[in-house]
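Deliverable D2.4 — example input (structure tokens):
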């Protein structure tokens, strides 16, 4: 079951990808527009995440209006949006990536531009969605094993240059 409670989501990221968790914390310091800071919306988002385990719920999400889905993903914190997409990818054969790619396709881009009058807001929304699209990349870049290997290589190089 998907739990989108703020503490649970951050705990997930700290366990799954500590480097990504740190990046998400920094990103969210700048997100003053997210609605999940409000307890009312935070509770509704948690309920929404849990409801996705019900039969047919993911199909309904797939059939949802793309502009509404985009607004949902943009107006919740990045850690929750990325967690939702990751869960959809893991539990429903890559559905998170499929939905995100559709939102960022030229057809999705046209829908976004038709529904929003502010060009600056359009650019902000599209930029944020592209960041979300790179989420699998972030997970691999900030993989603790990779970071440890890089740190080990740097230490080894430093030791070799000191001994030379």
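Example output (designed residues):
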């Amino acid at each position: 079951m998907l739990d989108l409670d703020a503490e649970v989501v951050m705990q997930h990221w700290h366990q799954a990808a500590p480097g990504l968790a740190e990046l998400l914390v920094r990103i969210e310091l700048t997100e003053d527009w997210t609605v999940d800071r409000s307890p009312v919306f935070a509770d509704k988002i948690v309920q929404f995440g849990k409801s996705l385990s019900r039969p047919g719920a993911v199909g309904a999400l797939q059939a949802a209006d793309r502009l509404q889905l985009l607004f949902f993903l943009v107006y919740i914190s990045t850690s929750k949006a990325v967690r939702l997409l990751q869960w959809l990818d893991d539990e429903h054969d890559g559905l998170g990536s499929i939905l995100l790619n559709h939102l960022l396709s030229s057809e999705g881009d046209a829908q976004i531009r038709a529904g929003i009058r502010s060009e600056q807001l359009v650019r902000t929304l599209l930029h944020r969605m592209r960041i979300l699209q790179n989420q699998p990349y972030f997970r691999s870049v900030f993989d603790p094993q990779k970071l440890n290997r890089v740190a080990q290589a740097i230490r080894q190089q430093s030791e070799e240059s000191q001994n030379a």
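The two ends are 55 Å apart (CA to CA).
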